[in-house]
Write a structure and sequence with these properties.
The chain is an alpha/beta fold. The protein has helices at about 15-25, 45-55, 75-90, 105-110, 115-130, 155-165, 175-190, 210-225, 230-235, 245-255, 270-280, and strands spanning about 1-5, 35, 60-70, 95-100, 145-150, 165-170, 200-205, 260-265. The chain is about 45% helix and about 15% strand. The model has no long low-confidence stretch (mean pLDDT about 95).
């Protein structure tokens, strides 16, 4: 398994200097991917624009949307934006996508929330056609277009993984929940008689260093997931606040068969990058000597 780090693109207080510095630090290791979140009606930075800026200051690290809500975007426009980012990053884009559960985001772009599943199926079916066709450029660097991961937790989600995607991205939570959902994604892949197996990604949240950082991190999660009601408390309680908790979480995901685990900061402080890097070392950076 490899471990990536999330960008603080949805956190208050983030600015250009922090985003670009964070990306440069990540490119130097020990992390293997750089993730971003997507939220339209929120104060955060746009995920695709953020990764495009990061592409200009990095050379090696994978750039991942983890996830974007696909149906919020027009299919042709998303195909062109993703292909452009793939070119500018020299083939380092992984496009993690899901429906998105916030109705307010759909209202903001005048897309019917109840039709998002049908729209998502159509979008996933069309993206490869755009990337492999001649009508909309540029041609992606990656053969067939960027890697596509699909997230969610429904029968429809797993069918989408089997039919359209290169893998599955879990929405976060305890390793046992990850294992159950990963198994369903793998079963759907097999039912579609596709060779090999899907890539399986996961993510978690951390705030290291002191009680104040932990409290800020919990407050952020409660705010970000307020729309889920009482479930937001459970998400906040899962915050990783000690090196021991981080290490145990990473090892558990590795034991459950995760391929790439992205850990997202919940505090916009450069120290958070260093604390996570120091905690993990080079064990999960994909190098032969790790």
């Amino acid at each position: 398994m490899q471990v990536g780090i999330g960008l603080p693109n949805t956190l208050k207080g983030v600015d250009r200097e922090l985003i670009l510095s964070w990306a440069e630090w990540a490119d130097d290791g020990p992390f293997t991917s750089l993730g971003v979140f997507d939220r339209l009606r929120y104060h955060g930075l746009d995920p695709m624009a953020t990764l495009t800026a990061c592409a200009a200051v990095t050379d090696e690290i994978e750039l991942a949307t983890s996830i974007i809500a696909g149906p919020l975007r027009r299919n042709a426009s998303l195909a062109k934006t993703a292909a452009t980012l793939d070119v500018l990053s020299n083939g380092r884009l992984t496009l993690g996508m899901a429906l998105g559960a916030r109705k307010g985001d759909y209202d903001a772009v005048s897309v019917e929330f109840e039709k998002r599943g049908r729209l998502f199926d159509q979008q996933l079916a069309e993206l490869r056609d755009y990337w492999e066709g001649d009508d909309i450029g540029p041609d992606p660097i990656q053969d067939g277009g960027p890697t596509i991961l699909v997230g969610g937790d429904s029968d429809h989600t797993y069918r989408r993984v089997g039919r359209f995607a290169d893998g599955y991205i879990h929405g976060g939570g305890p390793p046992r929940a990850f294992a159950r959902q990963a198994e369903r994604a793998q079963a759907a892949w097999a039912e579609c008689e596709r060779p090999g197996g899907p890539e399986i990604w996961g993510h978690g949240y951390y705030a290291l260093g002191c009680d104040e950082a932990a409290e800020k991190g919990r407050d952020y999660l409660l705010n970000y997931y307020e729309f889920t009601g009482p479930f937001a408390e459970r998400i906040a309680e899962s915050l990783l606040t000690t090196p021991q908790e981080v290490t145990q979480f990473v090892r558990s995901y590795e034991d459950k068969g995760c391929d790439e685990l992205i850990l997202f900061p919940t505090v916009a402080d450069p120290e958070q990058f260093d604390l996570l890097a120091d905690t993990l070392g080079t064990k999960w950076n994909g190098s032969e000597n790790a």
